[in-house]
C-alpha cells in the first residue's frame, strides 16, 4: 500500500464498517453500496484563484490528494441557454462525459491500494462510466476489464477498446451486466471500480457542485436539475450541498430536480407515490421500454433510498421526459451549437420551459458518443 487510508467505508442501511484498504466491494451484511466516513474540510473561495485548474483545486473537500495520473478533469464551462436556465458543459471532459469526475477517484484509489492488492480493475457500465474507467486505467498503467450490455452504442465500445481495456459484452439488460461484473469482482487481485457501490465516485461527482459554487461567487442557483439512473451525479451533488452548508459556505440550499426517461422511471414513480424506497423485487411491475437515454435506463438502482431522500429533503421533485422530448432536445441543443448525446439532454428536455428562479442543467455526454437520434 502506497498511502495509508484514514477513512473507512460505512453502510448507510445497517451501519456495517470496513477499512478502505481491505473492504469487499459491497456491504457484507446486506449487499448494499458503501458510504464513506469522511468529513470534508472548508474550501475557501479566496484561495482558489491560485490553485490548479482542475477539480483537484477543492483539495480540502476531497478524500484523496491529486492523482499522479490525472487528465486535467473538471472546470467545465457554464453557458446561459435562457434567462432562467444555464447549462454546465460536462461533455467537455477528457472522455466526453461527467463520469470522469468519479472515475479519476476510483482509479487513483486503485493505484494507491498498490500492486499487491490490485492487479486489475473491472467496471460495469452502460458505456460512459466504463469508458472513463478505461481511460484513467490507461493513464495509470492498470489493466482494465469493462462489462457492457450487448446493445451499447458502438462508438462507446470503440472508445473503451481504444484505451486498451478488455471489453466484455453481456447478453441482456444493464442489470445482467452488473451481475456479470459482480461475479468477477470477488476474484483475488480485482478492484471493482463500481460507480454505483463505491462512494469515492460520489466524492468525485460532487465537484460538479463545488465548481458551480465557485462560478456563482460562493452561492448556488435555486434549482439544480440532474439526470438520474443510478443517481451518481445527483448523490454527488447532494453530498456537496450538505458539505457546503455544513461548513457555513452557503446560506441557502438548492432544490434538486431529478430527471428520468419516462420509459424507465422507477424512482419518479416511487417518489410521486410517496414511497421512500422501490417496491420489493417480486412486486415490481414497473414496465420498462427501450429508451434513447441508455445512460439512465436503470430499473433497480441500488441507491434508490438515498436518491429519493436527497430529492425530498431538498424540496425538489422528479420529472420524466418522453422519447420525443429527448429527440427534440438533442436537435434543439445541436441547433444552438451544442452536440450532446440523448442521455445528456434529458435535463434540458425537462427544463427548457423553466421560468422560475435560476436553474442549471448538466449536458453530460457528447453527441459524438452516439450520433444524432432518428
Ligand atoms: Zn449493509
Question: Could you please describe the fold and organization of this structure?
Answer:
The chain has 374 residues and is α/β, with parallel strands linked by helices. The chain has 2 domains: 78-98 and 202-369, Rossmann fold; 100-200, Rossmann fold (3-Layer(aba) Sandwich). It contains 11 helices and 13 strands. It has helices at 100-113, 128-140, 154-162, 174-185, 200-205, 207-215, 232-246, 266-272, 304-313, 323-335, 346-351, and strands spanning 8-10, 17-19, 35-36, 78-80, 85-88, 120-124, 144-149, 166-170, 190-192, 223-227, 255-261, 317-321, 359-362. The strands form 3 sheets. It has a 6-stranded mixed sheet. Helix 1 (100-113) crosses helix 2, helix 2 runs parallel beside helix 3 (154-162) and helix 6 packs across helix 7. The longest helix is centred in the middle third of the chain and has 15 residues, at 232-246. The protein is globular and about 55 Å long. The structure holds zinc ion. Zinc ion binds next to loops.
| Largest sheet properties | 6 strands, mixed
Helix and strand sequence: EEEEEHEHEHEHEHHEHEHHEHHE
Query: Tell me, what's the shape?
Result: globular
As a percent range, the share of helical residues equals 25-40%
- Strand fraction: 5-15%
Instruction: Give the termini distance in whole angstroms.
Output: 50 Å
Number of domains: 2
Under CATH, the topology of the largest domain is which?
Answer: Rossmann fold
What is the count of helical runs? 11
The largest beta-sheet arranges its strands as 4-5-13-10-11-12
The CATH class of the largest domain, by name, is Alpha Beta
CATH architecture term of the largest domain? 3-Layer(aba) Sandwich
Which compounds are bound in this model?
A: zinc ion
Amino acid at each position: 500500500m502506497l498511502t495509508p487510508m484514514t477513512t473507512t467505508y460505512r453502510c448507510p442501511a445497517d451501519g456495517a464498517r470496513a477499512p478502505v484498504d481491505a473492504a469487499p466491494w459491497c456491504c457484507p451484511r446486506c449487499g448494499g453500496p458503501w458510504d464513506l466516513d469522511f468529513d470534508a474540510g472548508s474550501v475557501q473561495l479566496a484561495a482558489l484563484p491560485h490553485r490548479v485548474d482542475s477539480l483537484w483545486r477543492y483539495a480540502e473537500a476531497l478524500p484523496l490528494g491529486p492523482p499522479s495520473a490525472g487528465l486535467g478533469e473538471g472546470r467545465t464551462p457554464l453557458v446561459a441557454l435562457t434567462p432562467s436556465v444555464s447549462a454546465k458543459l460536462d461533455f467537455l471532459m477528457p472522455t466526453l462525459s461527467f463520469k470522469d469526475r468519479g472515475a479519476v477517484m476510483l482509479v487513483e484509489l486503485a493505484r494507491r491500494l498498490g500492486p499487491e492488492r490490485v492487479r486489475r480493475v473491472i467496471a460495469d457500465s452502460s458505456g460512459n462510466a466504463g469508458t472513463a474507467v478505461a481511460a484513467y486505467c490507461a493513464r495509470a498503467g492498470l489493466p482494465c476489464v469493462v462489462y457492457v450490455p450487448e446493445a451499447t452504442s458502438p462508438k462507446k465500445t470503440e472508445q473503451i477498446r481504444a484505451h486498451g481495456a478488455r471489453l466484455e459484452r453481456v447478453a441482456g439488460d444493464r442489470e445482467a451486466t452488473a451481475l456479470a461484473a459482480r461475479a468477477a469482482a470477488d476474484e483475488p487481485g480485482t478492484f471493482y471500480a463500481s460507480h454505483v457501490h463505491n462512494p469515492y465516485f460520489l466524492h468525485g461527482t460532487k465537484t460538479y457542485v463545488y465548481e458551480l459554487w465557485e462560478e456563482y461567487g460562493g452561492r448556488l442557483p435555486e434549482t439544480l436539475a440532474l439526470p438520474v439512473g443510478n443517481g451518481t451525479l445527483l448523490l454527488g451533488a447532494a453530498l456537496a450541498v450538505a458539505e457546503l452548508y455544513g461548513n457555513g459556505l452557503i446560506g441557502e440550499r438548492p432544490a434538486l430536480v431529478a430527471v428520468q426517461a419516462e420509459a424507465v422511471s422507477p424512482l419518479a414513480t416511487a417518489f410521486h407515490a410517496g414511497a421512500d424506497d422501490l417496491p420489493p423485487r417480486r412486486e415490481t411491475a414497473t414496465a420498462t421500454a427501450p429508451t434513447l437515454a441508455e445512460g439512465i435506463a436503470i430499473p433497480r438502482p441500488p441507491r434508490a433510498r438515498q436518491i429519493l431522500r436527497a430529492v425530498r429533503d431538498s424540496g425538489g421533485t422528479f420529472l420524466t421526459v418522453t422519447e420525443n422530448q429527448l429527440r427534440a432536445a438533442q436537435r434543439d441543443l445541436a441547433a444552438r451549437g451544442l452536440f450532446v448525446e440523448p442521455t445528456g439532454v434529458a435535463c434540458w428536455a425537462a427544463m427548457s420551459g423553466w421560468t422560475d428562479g435560476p436553474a442549471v442543467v448538466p449536458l453530460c455526454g457528447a453527441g459524438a458518443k452516439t450520433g444524432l437520434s432518428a
